[in-house]
Write a structure and sequence with these properties.
Blueprint (H helix, E strand, L loop, with lengths): L24 E6 L6 E5 L6 E6 L35 E3 L5 E6 L12 E5 L4 E8 L2 E8 L7 E6 L5 E5 L6 E6 L13 E2 L14 E5 L2 E7 L4
Antiparallel strand pairs: 1-2, 2-3, 3-4, 5-6, 6-7, 7-8, 9-10, 10-11, 11-14, 12-13, 13-14
Length: about 220
């Protein structure tokens, strides 16, 4: 047990606790520049949150929050209280966030430094633009896939890799031809060809187009 954990030696507290007041954590990622630990968690009905986790801090659950019980009943005292941290970003209604990654690659220069979050209930990929520790813009991508996105990671080539959550779940690679210098894929993209599970490893792809830009979500090749 690290001796500098915030609750080491405190009566009635478990020494392994780093922070508390979380509900249902689903994603963790270290900011590539600051090294800060970012986390997201599910709320009940509404109130999914992104937090920056700091030593010994209380993040409020169940005293404060932005959601309600599944029955519609009130859960929280309020949305803020002294001594409890506010989220960096939250969603009402819930999107059910799952998986998160900071983008540092060269394949999508306009996305560098952005935070990507998968969504289960909302069935999309969220792109968040940041200014320091603040979220300044949200864009919702790949909605036409109609897939529960369980995880998102950046590959060594700068592509984004997604894992979908279903009985016929898929691994998708989101990439861009380096010869294309037009704007990156946006929230109104449409799916032209959707591959079936039997096509795993084929050369067919799911093309997503906005204007003349070509960004592609493609099945990973079979090993």
């Amino acid at each position: 047990m690290p001796p500098d954990n915030p609750f080491v030696g405190r009566a009635g507290a478990k020494p392994e606790i780093w922070s508390y007041g979380h509900r249902n954590a689903q994603g963790l990622a270290l900011h590539p520049a600051s090294g800060k630990l970012w986390e997201h968690e599910h709320g009940p009905r509404g109130g999914d949150e992104i937090n920056i986790i700091e030593k010994g801090k209380n993040y409020g659950w169940p005293v404060i929050g932005f959601g309600i019980d599944y029955s519609g009943a009130k859960i929280h005292e309020s949305t803020r209280k002294d001594g409890m941290e506010q989220p960096v970003h939250y969603w009402v209604p819930s999107i059910a966030p799952s998986g998160m990654a900071f983008y540092t690659g060269d394949l999508f220069p306009a996305w560098r430094g952005n935070l990507f979050v998968g969504a289960l209930a909302a069935q999309l990929l969220v792109r968040l633009e940041l200014d320091g520790d603040k979220v300044v813009k949200e864009e919702r991508l790949l909605q036409d896939l109609r897939e529960r996105i369980r995880d998102v990671r950046q590959g060594p080539d700068g592509a984004l890799w997604l894992v979908t959550d279903s009985a016929s779940g898929r691994i998708l690679r989101v990439w861009r031809r380096r010869s294309e210098l037009l704007p990156v894929v946006g929230a109104r993209d449409r799916a032209d060809v959707l591959m079936s599970p039997a096509q795993l490893g084929s050369k067919e792809a799911l093309w997503l187009k906005r204007n003349n830009d070509k960004t592609c979500a493609q099945r990973a090749p079979a090993s």
